[in-house]
Design a protein that fits this description.
The complex is a heterodimer of chains A (452) and B (87). Chain A is α/β, with parallel strands linked by helices and 452 residues long. Chain A is built from 16 helices and 14 strands. Chain A has two domains: 187 residues, Anaerobic Ribonucleotide-triphosphate Reductase Large Chain (Alpha-Beta Barrel); 208 residues, Anaerobic Ribonucleotide-triphosphate Reductase Large Chain, CATH 3.20.70. In chain A, α3 crosses α10 and α7 packs across α15. In chain B, β2 and β3 form a beta hairpin. The chains are: A alpha/beta (452), B alpha+beta (87).
Amino acid sequence: MLNMSDIMETITMIQDENLDIRTITMGISLIDCCDSDIDQSCEKVYSKIHRYAKDLVKTGEDIEKQYGIPIVNKRISVTPISILAGVSGGDPVKYAKTLDRVAKDVGVNFIGGYSALVQKGFAPGDKELIESIPRALAETDFVCSSVNIGSTRAGINMDAVRLMGEIVIQAAEATKDHQCIGAAKLVVFCNAVEDNPFMAGAFHGTGEADCVLNVGVSGPGVVRAALSKMPADAPLDQVAEVIKKTAFKITRMGQLVGAEASSRLGVPFGIIDLSLAPTPAVGDSVAHILEEIGLEMCGGHGTTAALAMLNDAVKKGGVMATSNVGGLSGAFIPVTEDAGMIAAARAGVLTMEKLEAMTAVCSVGLDMIVIPGDTPAAVISGIIADEAAIGMINSKTTAVRVIPAIGLEDGEELDFGGLLGNGPVMKLNPMSPAKMIQRGGRIPAPLQSLKN
Amino acid sequence: MKAVVTVIGKDMVGILAKVSTTCAEANANVIEVTQSVLQEYFCMVMLIDITQMNCDIEGLRNRLEENVPSMTVHVMHEDIFNSMHRI
């Protein structure tokens, strides 16, 4: 029989330590939905997504019941819509509304892929789509958008960086009566991955199969609980070992659920994203893991080192537990979605500069950060360019998801509710990079790109 | 196919009887039972064969929760434990 303490460990993880499958995300290619008539194209998009994903939510719920493990989100990612918009022309927001409608009809809570990949330049449809993002996010509820503006292979498209600074502000402006939520559904990437199951940055890359199922696991609370049982003087290599073992167990569960879901839906299993994704719930915080390792508060000196070790140990533990690793795989640091980060930001310990350093070693980038509503577009472009540079040089994914808090005073907070959480307005460096941003053009691909 | 039933809570008379009766009514065969006091709680782990069961796992859990209302009941497919704790 199974070992009783193993059984109790699993049950404690789920019941007390917030272990869950964060998301099962169905990636659907829309390449065969392209049509030169936009209404035809939208119709095909609706029917294809509906056909593939109609049982996704029900299957997820059935698996939850069978295994007794919560699957928090069921989501869909699609081919970047800029490709469809390039073929059909017309107002891209029609696609956003179609995606929103089908998401509501099949019962998922987010649909990602209102995206454009412009790391080297704008193809037909790209600019139109990017310029329509603020309107698309304001007029829909579940659509998520992302734009890739740089990569290690291509360098950084600074024209796109300049444009995205403005788009982020417009997205917040257009939803200022709804906590500026538009900006929270928009991610600006460098080195975006094609199989990421996590929102808001999920899209289904053109190198992917027709339809796949990707899984994102989570479990910061489990890791923190495991570390809390260690003696305070345990050396860090032992701490890393415990994180690895815990990540392994979490990922095995994700593998089981992913394989089961894909066989029930008759869809190939894509990847597991081995991520520690926090939620605002008590005991589900990445910052608290770092504090358990030994920081007085997340954001103090030592944070980057602790995060680097955590991120690496999560990957090492998870990689053996699954047949296919992918996505972003690591520790997320979204400020408003993490109780410990919110507290550290309120206390002024966690600053923008420290977060930027942390993004060099975490799985993604500057995520869910509330910034002053009067921030100039050029400053946001500067933030994006800095992040993209870190990603480009280090051959890793980085991203910016900042939310300008339109109309809020310093010290006030935005509250999105749910998984997106809440957070205080964070201070930015007031010096302007406008001259550099106005130059536009391209930051050439770095030496790191010459691998062949 | 097997499932693991766990029942945790304050100790009282007749828990095992009620749980095994419920399993019998659902036509689930009890294969093994372990019970002890763990972390100051009564804690029972039961392995059952669900191949011939006349309801689904969720259904069994609902019935168990009705019959032992003060306890925390989990019924989970054994695969989840095998995959987490066995390589």
